[in-house]
Amino acid sequence: MQKIPMLINGNWVYADEERFLDVMNPSTGEVLAQISNANEAQVNEAIRAARVAFDSEEWRKVKAFERGQLLIELAQYIREHAEEWSLLECRDVGKPLSQARADIEAAARYFEFYGGAADKVMGDTIPIEDGILNAVVLEPVGITVHIVPWNYPIQITARSVAAAIATGNAVIVKSAEDTPLTTHAITKWFADKVPAGIFQHVTGLGSDVGPLLTSHPDINHITFTGSVSTGIAVMQAAAKNIVPVTLELGGKSPNIVFADAPMEQALDGVLRAIIQNAGQTCSAGARLLIEESAKEVFLTQLVERFKVLKVGPGEADLDMGPLLNKRQFMNISGRLQQAREDGYVVVGGETLTIEGYGKGYYVQPTILDGMEDTHVLAQEEIFGPVLTVFSFDTVEKAIALANSTQYGLVAGVWSKDLDTAHYVASRVQAGQVFINNYGAAGGIQMPFGGYKKSGIGREKGFVALRNYTQMKNIAIRYALPN
Ligand code: NAD
Q1: Which strands make up the sheet holding 132-140, listed edge to edge?
Q2: 90 in catalytic set
Q3: Quick one: 99 and 224 in the same domain?
Q4: Tens digits of per-residue pLDDT, 419-451?
Q5: What is the CA angle 89-90-96, rounded to 5?
Q6: Structural domain boundaries, residue 273
């Protein structure tokens, strides 16, 4: 069995024998590899090594444009190995191969984008008075910790690591226990490209390794992507040492469809927004809000499309793959059972056994209708291919429904009337609003993050570079001639 080592202080290291964890292929239920559950001494060693490396002359001397070139080189390497890495991601997460390919390309784009930005992170000068030059300088924050979820491992590793390296930090990545493979591939590339301690990968159970990292007094920033409950724990741990956090958390995002929407596009957009990665996407369009007068026709057509969706192993590259693991499967199948018992299922609603893949974690893409907006299935992030439907008869009702959950990550508005669409976009509490499209394929350049409990701060785009820099004001008095 392949054992995946961690990279700590430039050395490939493992945990003690009894601390290995299995990594499964969700499509087949087979064990793909094993990872180490890092112990306290290993986490502490990673943080110590990061500090030494960050303070070293060797790293300070690497020029901004050289850091950028390094990242662009990595982007190139990823593209050269795209097919191999796509298969890794597909097997690790269970997602259809073409979705894994899109993730690999997105990762390359992150390294390319932030590689290009590395020597364009500029400070400012402020006019104070004659005889003073006041400069605002952006410095790296120091040791940045990146805690990554399992649903988009390479993309989420790439998006924050690229920005942090571009700005000159020492990076420690903790991949999700279920999905370390592509982060390990990135780690192998970094291993001999940067000084020991500048890029490190630690693995293990979130509940063990997470708090060891987040409560450590010598880290300088945490970027956490994951659930709200873990985000709260991360923020509490960070608060003890006044360590800033960027939190990218969950969502329950609405697609608001008006009767005058471009219907084919809306049907396609609503469908893809909930089945992508089997609904295990923070920005999944999990709530369909449809104008009452269009509901019957729209829902009938959507149901027909759901009925013909093909579900199967990631490598078969069908419409939808399996759920990630047994925990996810038990959770989603329990929620489907509840929906069946309460009579909300319009289509789907069952678990699936795929011939030849009996150990995979498959469920049907599902639409639920008829529940109150206060119902737990309408409010909580299900994190599976389950769409809940509500209707509205006025624009204000649509806005109220869109804003009625604790989340605020993404929203879609579908209407040919741009007055209505713009008005709704201005009132919806969400970090990104898409009009007559959804998810905007890639979107590396666009700031991404949540209102309300969907998070704090923004990743992606130029603005994310601010997460990884500290601002220093330097006022220089110079002598004027008498
Ligand atoms: P999770 O919160 O269970 O785990 C996320 C990561 O945190 C994992 O690496 C895990 O090992 C680690 N972790 C667990 N306990 C920890 C602790 N006490 N301290 C520190 N780290 C800990 O989330 P998940 O199930 O892996 O991912 C799904 C969630 O992530 C969903 O809610 C989804 O919406 C969210 N998500 C958000 C975004 C975004 O950009 N907003 C993107 C993807 C996923």
Answers
A1: 124-126, 132-140, 469-477
A2: no
A3: yes
A4: 999 999 999 999 999 999 998 666 899 999 999
A5: 140
A6: 254-443
